[in-house]
Specification:
The chain is 41% helix and 14% strand. The relative contact order is 0.14.
C-alpha cells in the first residue's frame, strides 16, 4: 500500500506512545504505522543518510500478524547495524562483515518483539562503533538533520538522526564511550545511558565491551524513554521515577583533558543550570574528584584494545577490509604494556569509588555532552592520519567516557542550541543505580522546557 505523505507526516509527529494509541483505539490498523515509517524513510532519509538497510517486507509481514494487545503494537523502529536480529544484516558498519546475516536473537531484541515493536530497517554507524562520526566507505556520511554539513555523531549515528527527523519514533542505540549520548546531543533528542548491568543482554560476551557498553532505545519524549528503560531493565531492577525536589546539582565543565567546552556549549549548560534552579534545585560549581588524565589514558588504552582485537580477528585480511582508523588503533595497541592495561582496568574501580563518595554530597552532575557542537563532516573521517584523528576525536569526546569507565548512568537532554539552531545536548549523571533519578529529572525538565514540537526543517519541509 502507498500512504499519502500528509498522513505519514501526521503519524510521524507522534511519539511511540502516541502512535501506539492510534492502534489501541482503532483509529488506524497496525500496518499504517509501518507504512508511515516507510513513506517517511523514502521521502526524508536521502540527504541525512540514516538507513543502513531497509527491511520493509519484514515490517509489513510483522504488522499483518501483530498482537494488538502488545503495548507498542505495530510501532516501527530501527536496529543499530551492530545489533543481531535473525535474518537481518549484521555488518557493524564494516566492509569486513558485508553480507553477513544474523542468526541469533539476544534478550534485548526478544523484548522489543514481545512489546509489539516492528523493525523496518537498520541504522548507520561507524566501523565497529570505534568513532564518533559515521563517515566510512560502507554507508557514507550520516548528517545531523539540523545541519547537513555536520555529523550526526557516533556511534549510534543513523539511529539518532532517524528519530530526530521523524523517520521512526524509536531506534536501538549502544554506548561504550558516549555512543548514545553524543548522537542524541548532535541531533536534538534524548539519549539515556543506563548504569552498568541495568539493561538486559544485547550481544555476546566480550570483557572490554561488557565493562564499557550499555544499550538503550532512542525516543523523542521522556514517556517513551522511561517506558524503554523499564522494558529493557533486568527483572531485579525496579523502576521508581517519582520526582525528587531540591536536588543538589554539581556543575562541572571540566573535561577529561582538563579543558572546558566551547563558549556556546558552556552557555547552553549555564542556561540549563538556571532552569534547574527555577525548579527548586540547588546548583553550584563543583569538580568531580577524579584523576582526569589517568581516566583518559585508561579509556584510550581500552579503545586501542578493541581496535586491536578486531584486527586480530581478521588477520591477513585486515588491511584489505578494515578502515585506517581501526588499523591505527591496533598499531597503538601494540605499544600497550601489561602494566598499562592493568592501570586502565584499575581506573574503572578507582574512579567509581571516587564518584560514589562525591555523590554523598551531590545527587546529580550537570556537564556538557561534548566539547563543541556537532563536528563538520570530514573532521572525524576514518581516513585521517591516526594521530590527527585521535586528537580530534578525544578532544570532542571529552566528557562521556567517564560514565562508561565508572558504569554510572547519564542522560543527554535536548535543552540547548546555538544561534544557528544546531542542537547542544545537556548531560546529567548520577551515582551507579541512580537511573530513576535522572529519568525523573528529565521528565520534569521536559515539562518546564518542552522540546516535543521542535523539529529540524528537513523533517517537514514546506
Amino acid at each position: 500500500m502507498t500512504m499519502q505523505i500528509e498522513t505519514a507526516n501526521a503519524i510521524a509527529r507522534l511519539d511511540g506512545h502516541g502512535q501506539a494509541e492510534l492502534v489501541r483505539t482503532g483509529q488506524v490498523a497496525p500496518d499504517a504505522l509501518v507504512e508511515a515509517a516507510i513513506t517517511r524513510i523514502e521521502a526524508v532519509n536521502g540527504p541525512i543518510n540514516a538507513i543502513a538497510a531497509r527491511a520493509f517486507d519484514h515490517g509489513r509481514a510483522a504488522a499483518a500478524r501483530i498482537d494488538r494487545a502488545a503495548p507498542m503494537a505495530g510501532v516501527p523502529y530501527l536496529l543499530k547495524a551492530s545489533l543481531e536480529y535473525p535474518g537481518f544484516p549484521c555488518e557493524a558498519g564494516s566492509r569486513a562483515r558485508q553480507g553477513e546475516v544474523a542468526r541469533r536473537a539476544f534478550p534485548l531484541v526478544r523484548m522489543l518483539d514481545a512489546a509489539g515493536l516492528i523493525p523496518v530497517g537498520m541504522s548507520t554507524m561507524p566501523e565497529f562503533g570505534l568513532n564518533a562520526s559515521c563517515e566510512g566507505p560502507l554507508y557514507g556520511a550520516t548528517a545531523t538533520p539540523w545541519d547537513l554539513s555536520r555529523s550526526a555523531g557516533g556511534s549510534s549515528s543513523g539511529a539518532a538522526a532517524a528519530v530526530a527527523a521523524g523517520l521512526v519514533p524509536f531506534a536501538t542505540a549502544s554506548d561504550a564511550g558516549g555512543s548514545i549520548r553524543i548522537p542524541a546531543a548532535n541531533c536534538g533528542i534524548i539519549g539515556f545511558k543506563p548504569s552498568r548491568g541495568w539493561n538486559v543482554r544485547a550481544r555476546a560476551h566480550n570483557l572490554v565491551d561488557d565493562i564499557l557498553c550499555s544499550d538503550g532505545l532512542y525516543g523523542r519524549s521522556m514517556r517513551d524513554t522511561i517506558w524503554a528503560a523499564r522494558l529493557l531493565r533486568p527483572v531485579d531492577k525496579a523502576l521508581d521515577d517519582a520526582p525528587r525536589p531540591g536536588l543538589r546539582i554539581a556543575l562541572d565543565l571540566t573535561g577529561l583533558d582538563g579543558a572546558g567546552p566551547s563558549p556556546e556549549v558552556a552557555e547552553a549548560i549555564h542556561r540549563a543550570a538556571a532552569l534547574c534552579a527555577t525548579l527548586g534545585h540547588h546548583v553550584e560549581p563543583a569538580q568531580q574528584p577524579i584523576d582526569r588524565a589517568a581516566l583518559r589514558a585508561g579509556f584510550t588504552t581500552l579503545w586501542d584494545y578493541l581496535g586491536g582485537e578486531i584486527v586480530d580477528h581478521y588477520g591477513a585480511r585486515a588491511s584489505e577490509v578494515l578502515e585506517p582508523w581501526t588499523l591505527g588503533l591496533a598499531e597503538r595497541r601494540g605499544t600497550v604494556t601489561p602494566e598499562r592495561l592493568a592501570e586502565a582496568l584499575a581506573q574503572v574501580d578507582r574512579a567509581g569509588h571516587a564518584l560514589t563518595a562525591f555523590h554523598q554530597r551531590y545527587d546529580v552532575v550537570l556537564s556538557p555532552v561534548t566539547a563543541s557542537i556537532a563536528t563538520p563532516l570530514g573532521e572525524l573521517a576514518p581516513t585521517r592520519p591516526t594521530d590527527a584523528l585521535f586528537e580530534a576525536l578525544f578532544g570532542f569526546v571529552n566528557y562521556t567516557p567517564l560514565h562508561n569507565m565508572t558504569g554510572t548512568p547519564s542522560i543527554s537532554l535536548p535543552l540547548g542550541h546555538n544561534a544557528d539552531g544546531v542542537p547542544i545536548g545537556v548531560m546529567f549523571s548520577a551515582d551507579i543505580g541512580g537511573d530513576d533519578l535522572l529519568l525523573a529529572l528529565g521528565r520534569a525538565l521536559e515539562v518546564a522546557a518542552p522540546w516535543g514540537d521542535r523539529w529540524p526543517p528537513i523533517a517537514f519541509p514546506g
